[in-house]
Automatic annotation (TrEMBL):
GN (gene name): pqqB
Annotated family: Belongs to the PqqB family.
Lineage: Bacteria, Pseudomonadati, Pseudomonadota, Betaproteobacteria, Burkholderiales
InterPro entries: Metallo-B-lactamas, PQQ_synth_PqqB, RibonucZ/Hydroxyglut_hydro
Keywords tagged on the record: PQQ biosynthesis, Transport
Summary of the function given for this chain in its UniProt record: May be involved in the transport of PQQ or its precursor to the periplasm.
Listed name of the protein: Coenzyme PQQ synthesis protein B
Length: 306
């Protein structure tokens, strides 16, 4: 099984188009040692490696496909390596890339949980609009842990569990979360038995998520913010990390503490990094702290073979 990070940034990307925070300004000026990053997405393939499941459809998908020749095979006049799409939530940074796939010849196989399907047909009716183009072939993404496969992606078994986080801001139930608004996804290689747990929007610790992380060989989890008040302190927003469904890395009960409690052999990677997060600066003390704890920071193009 091969997992490739297409986009490692949170909504807005890095640098964000309208942002002059120290990170965004420093990256543009060339004074910061950091990599630019597109918005949150992965792809995964199994045996054969010709067809991939796309995990989240970012608004940067076209740029991500151009940067990933394997997603653009040439087996017929019109072709794609994307066999199907799985959504972790209905957030703008994870779903609006579906529009960019509208030229597909046949309906796009799409796996999403019921609350996400509801949001994408009502609050933000992308799936309704897509009916005027390729349409989607929707599959219910089970959130009870039962396993499923994506047609064309042989040798990869998927299973999901609900996370405590937040529905998208446009969702009619933004402040009234329901199971399935956000999910964590385990991808298991059926040949090696090795697995990766992915959760780009993880708002709180829970025994269920902890168990899923403990049984994975690699965890790739919410790295949005270093501190709860990061955006408030910078003056870019009034929103705290926790209020929008992201567990900050630092502090008591933070992600760093959680990851440090996992078995020693677990590979630990932060992903979905907001442009304000000091860990993007490779020379920052926060980044050094992660390195000391054996925690990696995902980057666009990162590949993990399991
Ligand atoms: C989030 O996960 O909270 C998002 O990155 C927000 C967004 O897409 O603007
Ligand atoms: Mn996001
Ligand atoms: Zn910024």
């Amino acid at each position: 099984m091969l997992i490739r990070v297409l986009g490692s940034a949170a909504g807005g990307g890095f640098p964000q188009w309208n942002c002059n925070c120290p990170n965004c300004a420093g990256l543009r000026a060339g004074t910061l040692r950091a990599l630019p990053r597109t918005q949150s997405s992965l792809c995964v393939t199994g045996e054969g490696g010709q067809d991939w499941a796309l995990i989240n459809a970012s608004p940067d998908i076209l740029e991500q496909i151009r940067a990933t020749p394997a997603l653009q095979p040439n087996r017929s006049l019109r072709d794609t390596g994307i066999a199907g799409v799985l959504l972790m939530d209905g957030q703008v940074d994870h779903s609006t890339g579906l529009y960019m796939l509208r030229e597909r010849g046949r309906p796009l196989p799409l796996w999403c949980a019921d609350p996400v399907h509801e949001d994408l047909t009502r609050g933000n009716p992308i799936l309704k609009v897509l009916e005027h183009f390729c349409g989607v072939d929707r599959h219910v993404l089970p959130i009870d842990g039962s396993s499923f496969h994506v047609d064309g992606v042989a040798g990869v078994r998927f299973s999901a569990l609900p996370l405590a986080s937040k529905a998208a801001p446009y969702s009619p139930h933004r402040e009234d979360p329901v199971p399935g608004d956000n999910i964590g996804l385990t991808m298991t290689c059926e040949r090696s038995g090795r697995s990766l747990f992915y959760a780009p929007g993880l708002g709180a610790h829970s025994p269920e998520v902890d168990a899923a992380m403990r049984s994975a060989d690699c965890v790739m989890v919410d790295g949005t913010f270093w501190t709860d008040d990061e955006m408030v302190a910078l003056g870019v927003s009034q929103k705290t990390a926790r209020s929008i469904g992201h567990l900050p890395q630092s502090g008591e009960g933070g992600m760093l503490e959680w990851l440090s409690s996992l078995p020693a052999g677990t590979r630990k990677v932060l992903i979905h990094i907001n442009n304000t997060n000091p860990i993007l600066d490779e020379d920052s003390p926060q980044r050094a702290k992660l390195t000391r704890h054996g925690i990696e920071v995902a980057y666009d193009g990162m590949e993990i073979a399991l």
